[in-house]
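Give me the 3D structure for FAD-dependent oxidoreductase 2 FAD-binding domain-containing protein.
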Amino acid sequence: MRSHTVAAEGGSAAVAQDHDSFEYHFHDTVAGGDWLCEQDVVDYFVHHCPTEMTQLEQWGCPWSRRPDGSVNVRRFGGMKIERTWFAADKTGFHMLHTLFQTSLQFPQIQRFDEHFVLDLLVDDGQARGLVAMNMMEGTGADPR
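Predicted structure for FAD-dependent oxidoreductase 2 FAD-binding domain-containing protein (144 residues):
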């Protein structure tokens, strides 16, 4: 699997401290997007991030820790409060590795290695498929 994600060092943001809140995360995210973000999507995103980050941890992502064992978070990307979860300086590698290894445990998940997604096919607000290119052959693919 090829992905530039493995080069990402920064981390992924999720509320993890008592002095932080979904409202602060929402504001930092929308302000960081110059108020051009779809705010309902950002609201959904910030409320689900802690659960998803914990899920990655349960699957094996080695988030950096403080001496007390809690997740170590830092400021990153214009956030005013420390909420960026990271795994040393190889966050992208560890996240992608965790997702890849987890996907191997589920035979019903069909991966399309060496394919590049060009578009999502959405009908009535639901993702119904995608348009992809087979990178090895340079042809369109129909991964249903």
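The chain has a mean pLDDT of 93. Let me know if you want a second pass.
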